[in-house]
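Q: How would the C-alpha cells look for this protein?
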Amino acid sequence: MADQSIPEARTPEKALNDGASENAALKNASLNEGVSRRRLLGTAGATGLVLGAAGGAVGYAARPAEATPLTSLGTEKAMFHGKHQPGILQGLQARGHLIAFDLTAGAGRKGAAALLRRWSETARRLMAGEATASQDTDVARDAGPSGLTITFGFGHSFFARTGLEKQRPVSLDPLPDFSSDQLDKARSNGDLWVQIGADDALVAFHALRAIQKDAGSAARVRWQMNGFNRSPGATAHPMTARNLMGQMDGTRNPKPSESDFDQRIFVPSSGSKDPSWMANGSYAVVRRIRMLLDDWEGLSVSEQENVIGRRKADGAPLSGGTETTAMDLEKTDAKGDLVVPINAHARISRPDQNGGAAILRRPFSYHDGIDSDGAPDAGLLFVCWQADPLRGFVTVQRKLDRGDALSQYIRHESSGLFAVPGGAAEGEYVGQGLLEG
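A: Here is the predicted structure in C-alpha cell form.
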C-alpha cells in the first residue's frame, strides 16, 4: 500500500492557542448578547469544551477533525472486470459485509439474470468510486473507493429455483456434518451470496445498501453478517492480522507466487469436472465461528500457545524461529515431549498433514454484542477459497474434527458453500455464462 498522508500533529501549545482563540470568541459573543460569565462557562461545558488544569491543554470533544486531503487509503481501487472476481486475491479489508439472498417466487432464471446485471453494474460503478445509477444514498459521497470489492456467488438451491440443475457443479454438493457444528439453518446457505469489503466503514455500508436496494422484488435477504479487520496502516509495519483470540491468523496462507497456487484456488479454464461457466472461478466456504472468549482468556499465554502451536507474540512455531520458519514437528523438549503438541491446531491443519490440501483464508472478525449470560457473541466470519471444497475445506475440517485442541474453544454456528464464477469481461455481468449459456 502506498504511504498515507499523516495529518499535522496537534501539539499542546497549538491546542492552547486554538483554545484561547475560541475562548475569546465565546467571550465576545457573551458580551454582545449580555450573557454572564457563569452562563458562558456552563454553555461551553454543554457543547463539549473541556478545560484541562494539567499543563493548560484544551480539548474539544464535539469539534470535527480538521480537513485533510484524501489519503492513499481512500484512493485504493480494485478492478471489477478481470479474470477473477474481486475480493479473493486482495488483502484483508477493514470492514466487511456478508449477505445471502433467496430468490422470490416467480423470479426464475430471467429475474436472476436481470438482478445479476443490475448488481454487476452497481458493483462496477461503486468500485470505481462513482455513485450508483439512480437514487444514490450519498453515504459515501465524500470518500474515494477505499479498496471496495463486491463478489457474487451461487448457492446449491439457486439452480433448482432457476431451472438450471444440469449446470449445478458437483463441487457444490452440501458440506458434511462436523462434530463442532451447531448450525442455525436460518443463517446458513442461500440462493445468492454477496461479499462486500472496503477499508472504510461508510463505503462498505453504502455498497451494502445499494446491493439490497437493487435486489428489488427479485430476491429477499436471507441473512446478513458484519465484520471487521485491523485497518491498514494501524501497525508500524505490514504483518499477519490477528483474530479476536489475539492469535495471528493466516500465516500459512498459500501465496500467488507459489507454482501450484492457481490450481489449488481457482477452477481451470479447461480439463475440469466443473461446468465451463465456472472457469477461473472458485468456491467459497463461509462459516460463522463463535469464539468462546471467556474460556479462552482464562488460559495462560503458554496454554494458549500449546493449543495453537505458535507463539502468541510473533506467530513463530513453538519449535523456534520466526513466523515464516518451517515448523519442526519432531522436535522434543528436555522431557522428551513434543514441543508442538500432537493436537495443536497449527500442526493438524498443515497441508502436509492433509494430503496437500490448501485453502486461502480471507476472514473477518465479528462482535454482535453480549448474550443473556454475559458472554460476548464474537468470533470469526470464516471465508476460505479453493478450487475444490472436498479436497480443500472438507479435508482439513475432517482432520480438525478428530482432535484439534482449539475445538473446545470455538463453535460453528452457521455455514454456506457458494460457487463463485470467474470475473466478468468488459460489457458482461457476473454469471452471464451460466444464465445465458
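The longest helix spans residues 12-33.

Residues 291 and 379 are 5 Å apart (CA to CA).

Upvote if useful.
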